[in-house]
TrEMBL record:
Organism, as annotated: Bradyrhizobium niftali
Pfam families reported in the protein's UniProt record: Epimerase
GO molecular function: UDP-glucose 4-epimerase activity
Listed name of the protein: UDP-glucose 4-epimerase
Domain NAD-dependent epimerase/dehydratase, first and last residues per copy: 5-253
Keyword annotations from UniProtKB, A to Z: Carbohydrate metabolism, Isomerase, NAD
Coiled-coil regions, chain positions: none
Domain of life, per lineage: Bacteria
EC number: 5.1.3.2
C-alpha cells in the first residue's frame, strides 16, 4: 500500500530534496509551507498546502484529509545571525510553531514525526568527532530552539506515545544530481553557493571568516553532507519509525572535515575559475571544527553517506546554478 508523508517546509532546500526522495521511493507526498523562505516551483512531487504550521485549523484539516503515515518536519527559520538579533521570531516560528504542529498531529491522531535538528545544538564541541552522547550546549538562539524541540519530542514520546526521530544534520550541501532542484536561500549566507557566486562574478568576492582558528590552515572546519544523502537518511528513518516507533536521535554527517580554504580550492578546481577571496575576521559564534560521528545511524538505520565527496558536492551545486529556476531566483 502507498505510504504518505506530510512534509512541512517542503518548498525549502533540504525539504524539497526529501520530497523527491520519498516520491522516488513510491510515497505520496504532501507539502505544507508558508513560502516565507521557500519556492513554489520547488514543490514538484505532490500538492502544496500554502499555510503556516501554526495555523492549527488548516494543518489539522490536512492531516485528517491525507492521513499521513508520517510527518517530516523541516519548516523553520535557520539563520544563526538573525536568531541572535531577533530571537522572538525564532522562538515563535520554530519552537511555538513546532508545538502547534505537534498539537495538530495529536488532534488528528497522527503520531510519527521526523525532525530536522542540527549540530548547532552541540555548541562548541568538547571533542570531535561528535557523537550523539556529546553534551548539547547551543551558543545561539537558533540552536536553542532546535534543542528545546528535541526535548519536547522526548516528552511527547513519553507522555503521549508520539514516535520521533531527530536528525542532527551537519552542513547540508550540494544539490539534486539531476539538476531539478537546488539550494536557494534569500539572502544566501552559506559558504558553497557564495564561493560559486564569487567564481562566477569576480565583483562578488568570497570572504573567509577567520584565518586564526587552531586548524592546519587556520580556517574553520565543517562536515559537509550531500543533501541527497540526507534525503536517504530520512527515508530510512521514516521506515524505521513505522516499523518500531520510539524516540530516536541521529547525527547525519560524514566523519570527514573540510576547511573553508580547502572548499575554496575545490570550487576553483571544479568551476575552472578561482573565486576572488578576501580574508576577514571570525563570524561570531562559529566553532573551529564540527565533525560528526555517524556510527549510530550506520548501525541502527543502515545509513552511509555515498554522495558526499567534496568534489561531487561542488559539482552538483554548480550544475544547479545553471538551471533556469536558479538563474530566475538570483536575478530577484
Ligand atoms: N541547511 C543546513 O545546512 C541545515 C543544517 C542543519 C539543520 N537544518 C534544518 O533543516 C531544515 C531545512 O533547512 P533548509 O536549509 O532547507 O531551510 P529553507 O529555509 O530552505 O527551508 C525551510 C522551509 O520552511 C518554510 N517555513 C519556515 N517557517 C515556516 C512556517 N512557520 N510555516 C510553514 N512553513 C515554514 C520556509 O518557507 C522554507 O520553505 C530547517 O529546519 C533547518 O533548521 C538545515
Ligand atoms: O561567507 C562566508 C560564509 C561561511 N563561511 C564559513 O564557512 C563555514 C560554513 O558556513 P555556512 O555555510 O554558513 O554554514 P554554518 O554556519 O556552519 O551553518 C549551517 O550548518 C549548521 C550546522 O553546522 C546548520 O545548523 C545551519 O542551519 C546551517 O546554515 C563556516 O566555517 C563559516 O564561517 C565563510 O568563511 N564565509
Amino acid at each position: 500500500m502507498t505510504k504518505t508523508v506530510l512534509v512541512t517546509g517542503g518548498a525549502g532546500y533540504v525539504g524539497s530534496h526529501c520530497c523527491k526522495a520519498f516520491a522516488s521511493a513510491g510515497w505520496a507526498v504532501i507539502t505544507v509551507d508558508n513560502l516565507s523562505r521557500g519556492w513554489r516551483d520547488s514543490v514538484r512531487w505532490g500538492p502544496l498546502i500554502e499555510c503556516d504550521i501554526r495555523d492549527g485549523t488548516r494543518v489539522r484539516g490536512a492531516l485528517e484529509m491525507y492521513k499521513p503515515d508520517l510527518v517530516a518536519h523541516f519548516a523553520a527559520l535557520a539563520y544563526v545571525g538573525e536568531s541572535v538579533t531577533d530571537p522572538a521570531l525564532y522562538y515563535a516560528n520554530n519552537t511555538a510553531g513546532t508545538l502547534a504542529l505537534l498539537e495538530s498531529m495529536r488532534a488528528a491522531g497522527c503520531d510519527r514525526i521526523l525532525f530536522s535538528s542540527t549540530c548547532a545544538s552541540y555548541g562548541v564541541p568538547q571533542h570531535v568527532p561528535i557523537d550523539e552522547g556529546h553534551p548539547q550546549l547551543p551558543i545561539n538562539p537558533y540552536g536553542w530552539t532546535k534543542m528545546i524541540i528535541e526535548r519536547m519530542l522526548e516528552h511527547y514520546g513519553r507522555a503521549y506515545g508520539m514516535a520521533s526521530v531527530s536528525l542532527r544534520y551537519f552542513n547540508a550541501a550540494g544539490c539534486d544530481p539531476d539538476g531539478e532542484i537546488g539550494e536557494c536561500h534569500e539572502p544566501e549566507t552559506h559558504a558553497i553557493p557564495l564561493m560559486i557566486e564569487a567564481a562566477r562574478s569576480p565583483d562578488r568576492p568570497f570572504t573567509v571568516f577567520g584565518t586564526d582558528f587552531p586548524t592546519l590552515d587556520g580556517s574553520a572546519i565543517r562536515d559537509y553532507i550531500h543533501v541527497k544523502d540526507l534525503a536517504q537518511a530520512h527515508l530510512l528513518a521514516g521506515e524505521m519509525l513505522i516499523r518500531q516507533g520510539g524516540v530516536h536521535v541521529f547525527n547525519l554527517g560524514t566523519g570527514v572535515g573540510t576547511s573553508v580554504l580547502e572548499l575554496v580550492e575545490a570550487v576553483a578546481r571544479i568551476a575552472g575559475a578561482a573565486p576572488a577571496v578576501l580574508y576577514g575576521s571570525r563570524r561570531e559564534g562559529d566553532p573551529p571544527k564540527l565533525v560528526a560521528s555517524f556510527e549510530k545511524a550506520a548501525r541502527e538505520l543502515g545509513w552511509h553517506p555515498t554522495n558526499s565527496q567534496i568534489d561531487f558536492i561542488v559539482e552538483t551545486a554548480l550544475r544547479w546554478r545553471d538551471h533556469p529556476s536558479a538563474a530566475r531566483r538570483s536575478s530577484h
